[in-house]
Amino acid sequence: MAANVNVTYQDMKDAATKLRTGQHDITQKLHDLQKYVNQLVNGGYVTDRSSKQFEQSYTEFNNGATKTIEGIDGMAKFLEQAAQTFQQADEQLAKGIGH
pLDDT tens digits for 24-37? Predict the structure, then answer.
């Protein structure tokens, strides 16, 4: 019969850390790109209308993407909490058998 649970606490904690690192990297890249677009529409691409519309559209996209990426933190928290819960349950079960 196959096992229903196979948990490596450290793997789950490591995954949470990796998710947060990725979130930070993506957020930083989005910030850098927004800064680049702002510079572009103030220097290399300046028109009466289209450059302003482009900047507005990009900013809206960037804000939406940033908010979406913030959801990664919730995923990381879930992994940390799940690892802790599984570990505590295992310890409690072991204590019950040890007596």
Answer: 999 999 999 999 99
At residue 46, what are phi and psi to the nearest 5 degrees?
-125, 115
For residue 8, give both structure tokens: 């490596």
Q: Give the tokens for residue 92.
A: 């409690």
Report CA-CA distances (Å) from 6 to 12, 31, 57.
Answer: 11, 39, 46
Dmax (CA) of the chain: 80
Q: Rounded to whole angstroms, how far apart are CA atoms 44 and 16?
A: 41
pTM: 0.83
Coil, strand or helix: which one is 41? coil
| Cα three-residue angle 17-12-74, rounded to 5 degrees | 60
Tokens of 38: 């702002």
3 φ/ψ angles, rounded to the nearest 5 degrees: -75, 140
